[in-house]
Amino acid sequence: MRIATWNVNSIRSRIDRVVGWLDRHDVDVLAIQETKCREDQFPGLELSALGYEYAHVGVNQWNGVAIISRVGLEDVERSFGVDQPQYEDLLEPRAIGATCGGVRMWSLYVPNGRELDHAHYAYKLEWLARLRDAGQAWLAKDPEAQIALTGDWNIAPQDDDVWDMAVFAGRTHVSEPERAAFSAVVDAGFTDVVRPHTPGPGVYTYWDYTQLSFPKKKGMRIDFVLGSPALAQRVEGAFIDREERKGKGASDHAPVVVDLAD
Predict the structure, then answer these.
(1) Rounded to an integer, what distance in angstroms lies between the CA atom of residue 82 and that of residue 87?
(2) Who's near 70: CB < 8 A, 6+ residues apart?
(3) Given a cut of 80, is residue 81 above it in pLDDT?
(4) What percentage of the chain carries pLDDT values higher than 90?
(5) For residue range 141-184, what is the model confidence (pLDDT) as tens digits?
(6) Interacting residues of 104 by C-beta distance below 8 A, sequence separation 6+
(7) What is the mean pLDDT of residues 232-239?
(8) Which CATH number covers residue 47?
(9) Sorting pLDDT into bands at 50, 70 and 90, what band is 88?
C-alpha cells in the first residue's frame, strides 16, 4: 500500500499535475493540503475517473485539506476535536481524517504562525497541543491502531531542515516552542517514518517561489508523515519526489511518499 502527502497550493490550479502524478506513481491514498477552494469547487470528477473517492473540507481560497483514496474512505472526520474559543476568529479548515485500507489517514495543514508575536503563532501552538492530546488518546484507546499524521507541519524540527539557520533567526518554523510542539507529538507515540529513508542535510520538501530558491537549493523540510507504532512497523520505504517541484505550474511543495507492507 502506498500513501502520500502533498501540499498542492491550489487543487484547481494543479489538478492535471495531481492526476498525472497519481497515475505515474500508483498511489493508493493521498493527503492534500492547501486545496484553496470550497467543497463544491473541488475537482472530484477528475479523481473519480481514476477510481478515487475523496473527502474534502474547505471554505474559500485559503487553507483546505482533502484525502483521496482508491482503497476505501470511511469514518470521515473534518476535525480532530479542536475547540478553541479564544481563537474563534482564526479557526480554519486544517484537518481531515478517514480510514483508508485499514489506515487512519489524517491530512493536516498546521497553522503557519506568521510572526512570533502574532496571535496566529499562539493559535499554532495550541492547535499542535490539541493534536498531541488527540493522538495520545487514540493510541491509549488502541495501541495497535494504524495511524498516519501526514501533511504540511510548517515546522522544521532540526537545524539541517532549513538551508541556512541564520536566515531564520527570530522567525517562525524554527523557534523552540514550535519544535517542542512537534517533539511532543513524537513523544505521544508517533514516528517520522520518512527521515530514515531520506537522510539530510539538504533534503527538503518546500522551496519558495521567489529568488530562484529551488535551483539554488534554498529549501525547508516541513512536510512529514508521522506514524503510530503499528504503522511504523509496516514501512518498507519512503521518498520525497523532488522532481515534481520542477516545471511550469508546480506547487512550491514536493510530494512525500511512504510504502507500507501488506
Answers:
(1) 10
(2) 28, 29, 50, 51, 52, 53
(3) no
(4) 92
(5) 999 999 999 999 999 999 999 999 999 999 999 999 999 999 99
(6) 97, 98, 138, 145, 146, 147, 148
(7) 98
(8) 3.60.10.10
(9) low
List, as one string, the DSSP characters of 86-120: GGGGG----EEEEEETTEEEEEEE-----STTSHH
Number of domains in the chain: 1
Q: Which range of residues forms the domain containing residue 119? A: 2-260
**DSSP letters along the chain, please?**
-EEEEEE-S-HHHHHHHHHHHHHHHT-SEEEEE---S-GGGS-HHHHHTTT-EEEEE--SSS--EEEEESS--EEEES-SS---GGGGGG----EEEEEETTEEEEEEE-----STTSHHHHHHHHHHHHHHHHHHHHHHH-TT--EEEEEE-----SGGGBS-GGGGTTSTTS-HHHHHHHHHHHHTT-EESSGGGS--SS--SEE-SSTTTTTTT-EE--EEEEE-HHHHTTEEEEEE-GGGGSSTT--SB--EEEEE--
**Mean pLDDT, residues 228-250:** 97
In angstroms, rounded to a whole number, what is the distance separating the alpha carbons of residues 159 and 62?
Answer: 29
Q: Supply 129's cell numbers.
A: 497541543
- pLDDT of 72 > 80? The answer is yes
* C-alpha cell, 1: 500500500
Grid cell for residue 14: 494543479
Cβ-contact 185, 136 below 8 angstroms: no
